[in-house]
Design goal:
- By secondary structure, the chain is mainly α.
- It has one domain.
- It has eleven helices and no strands.
- Helix 4 crosses helix 11.
Length: 238
């Protein structure tokens, strides 16, 4: 007997988000060996491996739920929490490391200014995953929080795609707009299916979109300069 699929939306958006990230990092990581770029440092490579594992797990978990394999989903959820914790630690370490590399970003920000951008993404990811784990018994909130966690960290992949297509000058517009498009997809799904939108998508989505102009304000603020400089100093030794 064929398995009855309960809801196609979550497997679909999980796959689209995973493919978005993979395509974004295709040149700089997945097919780096074809580009002639120098080898990556071990820390960055470990971060990329861990996050790739998260992408695979994220897609599989949505498909297990759609196929009613809840017990397997819950067992793998424990491994997912361990992997997420590793991603946060490696992500912060990688952000510190890149802050120590003296280069100016296309946005005009110096490395020590720019580091706030990935750090906020990591923070949002940690918050959404943590809340998702805490509310794992409340399926409606849990699954939405995990989707938001993924949307919160598409920024680096988007940045590389903008560079590939030569639209980096549009970054201030596209960095919040693309996550907003994914969030709009979530809200439309909620409305079409339930005739209401879940507050998790509304509040979490607003937090992700609003964080982008806030990051830029912080990066250019006077009080962030010594903080960023300290992070760059620490990162230079990683």
């Amino acid at each position: 007997m064929a398995v009855v699929v309960r809801n196609r939306f979550y497997p679909q958006i999980a796959l689209v988000l995973a493919l978005f990230v993979i395509v974004g990092f295709s040149q700089s990581y997945y097919f780096r060996f074809l580009t002639g770029q120098p080898p990556m440092v071990t820390l960055v490579h470990l971060h990329a491996i861990a996050f790739t594992g998260w992408l695979v797990l994220f897609v599989l978990q949505t498909r297990f739920i759609a196929a009613h394999r809840v017990a397997l989903h819950m067992r793998l959820g424990i491994a997912g929490l361990v992997l997420a914790a590793g991603i946060v630690v490696l992500g912060v370490a990688t952000a510190f490391h890149t802050a120590g590399l003296p280069r100016v970003r296309p946005s005009g920000l110096a490395a020590h200014q720019f580091v706030i951008i990935p750090l906020v993404s990591i923070l949002l990811f940690a918050v959404f995953v943590g809340l998702g784990a805490a509310l794992r018994r409340r399926a409606a909130a849990h699954k939405r929080l995990m989707v938001l966690a993924m949307i919160a960290v598409i920024g680096p992949a988007l940045g590389r795609l903008m560079g590939f297509f030569g639209v980096l000058p549009l970054a201030p517009l596209l960095q919040p707009l693309v996550p907003a498009a994914f969030i709009a997809w979530c809200l439309i799904h909620d409305w079409r299916r339930n005739r209401m939108v879940h507050p998790v998508f509304v509040i979490g989505g607003l937090a992700i979109v609003a964080s982008w102009p806030l990051r830029m304000m912080i990066a250019r603020s006077e009080w962030w300069q010594p903080v960023g400089a300290w992070i760059a100093k620490v990162g230079a030794g990683i």
